Please model this.
Amino acid sequence: MEAADLFFGAFANKNRFRILNKLNKKSLCAGELQKKLNIEQTHLSHDLRCLLNCKFINVRKDGKKRIYSTNNDTKELVDEVSKHVKKYEKYLERCGVLEKEKNGRV
Amino acid sequence: MEAADLFFGAFANKNRFRILNKLNKKSLCAGELQKKLNIEQTHLSHDLRCLLNCKFINVRKDGKKRIYSTNNDTKELVDEVSKHVKKYEKYLERCGVLEKEKNGRV
DNA sequence: TTATTATATGAAATTTTTTTCATATTTACT
DNA sequence: AGTAAATATGAAAAAAATTTCATATAATAA
Model:
């Protein structure tokens, strides 16, 4: 089950998920992503490396830019997860540090 | 995109993923899960509450036990993710704190 | 009504991840 | 060669999640 842990380490992150969603629509270079998502440059760069290492995305060079893109498996996965998130949105609560007021006991 | 963050907070966790996989096969009470997964009692309890809050799982009472189960949406999602994890296993690397030795530069 | 089993809770301690900072690299242009 | 633009890197700081601890509650049985 170690692989699942690594998987989540890479995939399960708000910013990285936003990146994947953007790239699902259109391949983009880092600079474009940065503008669209309004993430600080080095932060974005770290996230891209993370996604890249785990093969969620690919790069190709184009002059001094690097164009990032998702593959089909990633597209499917991201869409599936997005579907679930949308459907369960109303139930989702911050975990671990559950907001005390909301504690809906069983 | 806030919902995605909450979603990952609950779903994206090694132990909780193990729990979901077990429950996908068979509804179980906390005690049984504890034995099968070898997780410390209060730890498991926290994780169950988390999954419960976000409606990944359901409970019903049976005497002094509580029987946990997954729903169909969760089953599908967990299976989809498991499939991806299996396929990409060989690429997965710990993120954020990337092991220095492994640094496969682009 | 007390004891026991099963499970839950909240807070503190620990660990991990995210974010920022300062700087490096890479490519193209002059 | 020197400069600027685009992106990457590593380490430190900050934030968040996990794990443990000590204790509470709930249901049943003696």
